[in-house]
Amino acid sequence: MLLAKTKFVNDINNNFFYGWIIVVIGGLGIFASGAGQSHTFSAFLPIITKELGISSTSISTAYMIATLVAAFLLPKVGKLVDKFGPRIVLIVTITVLGFGCLFFGAASNFLMLALGFGFLRFFGQGSLMLCSSNIVTQWFDKKRGLALGLMGLGFAVSMGLHPPISNFLIENYGWRTAWAIIGLSTWIIMIPPLLFLAINKPEDVNLMPDGIKSKTNKVNKSKIYGLTLDEALKEKCFYILAFSFFSISMLVTAIHFFQVTILKDYFGLSNKVGTALFIPTMLAMIVFIPIVGKMLDKFKTHIIISIALFVTASSLILITLATSYINAIIYSIVFGINNAFSISLFGYIWARYFGRLHVGSIQGTGQMILVVGASIGPIPFAAAIDLFGDPITTIRISSIYPLFASILCFFFLREPNKMTIFKLKENKQ
After folding, report:
1. Listed residue (339, 353, 356) closest to 78, CA to CA
2. Burial class (CB within 10 angstroms; exposed 0-12, middle 13-18, buried 19+) of 222
3. 150 to each of 22, 115, 163, 367, how far by Cα in Å?
4. Of 44, 175, 189, 190, which one has the greatest count of Cβ atoms within 10 A?
5. How many whole angstroms separate alpha carbon 427 and alpha carbon 423?
6. pLDDT of 81-134, one tens digit each?
């Protein structure tokens, strides 16, 4: 079976690098993760709040509890990826995610809602994104920024399509049936390519990252280098990255979660307009994701991260100024640029700073921290809505966090010395 698959992959590789097929699979995975993403929940939030009689704070609390539980399980997923490879973990993840959508559509109370959020956040926003970026990371090195950027187009398409499609399904079939359709679509989109096309890493089929030709007929797997999780946790850059991307995960999630509510209740824009504004966000992402990928391959990473954090702060300010259609469109475009940076960087940073040998374990721990941020993010905004009737001041104050992280990364974020030594040794060989 392995010999047949190796022959199949190498036949394709004679025409173009098979890693680009892996990028497409990763992109489909990122798209399918929309079932567990905040921009999809945003379309359902008003109707669920009304039908179940649950306040914004209660829903955000359910979301937070579920996401926190999911977050602390992600390091286990990372270890499973290192042990079994991302393909098997992806197949299990997408299977359970589909059932999670069906369960969420059947929710009738706070407890079921929280459990549903748990399924969707852990298997969608958490595991599916982790495994998709991991499998692409394994196939690229020098072109990793471009590859992960192109993979991130799946998130752009998800952001542009999931909210308006969800709104259409809600209006025509009801929110419960909408979730059943979303669940079935994830199986249809993901299971066939995972079964027949996905390969864990190029070395498994006697290839090398980036399509580089080996000087011999056999690939030396010992050249795969990287820090262990314990070594990574001793590095200053791990904590700078965690602190910085915690802010992006936290605040971007909050904006996704409440975008429709904020634009409707505080600026007079309808649900239809609020969900439609995800389309210019998607278009901005499609334009800027390849640009960000090229920037990552060409320029110093800490500078790109610093710019990304500055754009996050700008997005927060701009949503509080969306008092007209023009301002709302400007916000949605800048928010798309923000997402182009974040989706490209989330998969890129762990292998970039710590290598790909143990990247599953490191990424799992890193993503746990980021998902904790995502779980907490909506709470301050929800509390501001329920207690003060106005989240605008809270959002503006929140923008200080990514702005500070931007300065921190620019001056202090650098690669571990041990990784530099690994690369010097490889260049001499």
Report:
1. 356
2. exposed
3. 11, 33, 21, 20
4. 190
5. 6
6. 999 999 999 999 999 999 999 999 998 888 888 889 888 988 988 899 999 999
